[in-house]
Amino acid sequence: MSSDGFAVHSRDVNQRSFRSVIRSTFIEAHSSKLKATGEFDRLIATPRVHFVYLHHVFEDEKANFRRTLEEIGRTHQFVSYSKAVELVYSGKVDRPYACVSFDDGLKTTLDASLLMDDLGISGCFFVCPAIVGETDREMVRRFAETRLRYPPMDVLSWDDVENMLARGHEIGSHTYSHPNMGDVSVEQAIDELQLSGDAIRRRLGSVKHFAWPSGKWENFSARAGKAVFDLGYASCASAIRGCHMPRAFGVQPRDVCFRRDHIMGSWPLHHNMYFLARSVLQARGNDYEWPNAWQPIVKSERNPAPGESVAPSPGSAIFAPAAS
Mean pLDDT score of the chain, rounded to an integer? Predict the structure, then answer.
């Protein structure tokens, strides 16, 4: 930790626990079994689109992050986030494809983007405009404690974001202020989506992709999913593990909730690769779909009148500065 309590190493964020030891033991055993039978190599080489995502790449994680990308690149073709989205919508997947994204807009991802430049990889960085460019460390600390639920870390500036965009990376929306979208009202969810999109468009010109905070079903809702597409986003991504297999038919954007596999630079290389193989092992043909009960709502299109926009509602739960 820094002198004021900001995380500067992977160990500041990833505390070793009994649960993590059990998980590591299981991964080692299952990975060894898959490799001994040759199944691991077959799974990794299976045609599909695989989205991987991270939150941070500290200095002590860079070497293994690079090795992980190089290892994925041995068997996969890296594509941009937008290209990966298009491939999933079309269903026409003829080889293993991979793309990389980052959530939360943390400062360490700027260095990660430069490392990716060296490898010729374009990523998508999902940011929360409420905190981008914030230099008040107490504000950042409060945001981390109340919204991110992990130790505070430096955040990207708008100059950083514009720099990444200029180098060929993409910038997506991660809501305006990183609430639990499963706990807010429909009006508040619309505010978060609208305000985030508007702020990014003002600075960068456009925004196409959205990923919701925390990324589990309980952190979202069917009506929030519907609002994503009503407000003009081209895709909606979760943090639910999985991958996207070839299909004989195309689908519409509202049909798809993207799955992404979480990896970390602090994890052993073979652990990161294990999660990719496991997602292929568990893949089913309909893994791109929303929960059954959500589908009629998410897929119900709304056609706003020309020039109509959704105004933020009074009382929305938007992150606000601490009282002085």
Answer: 92
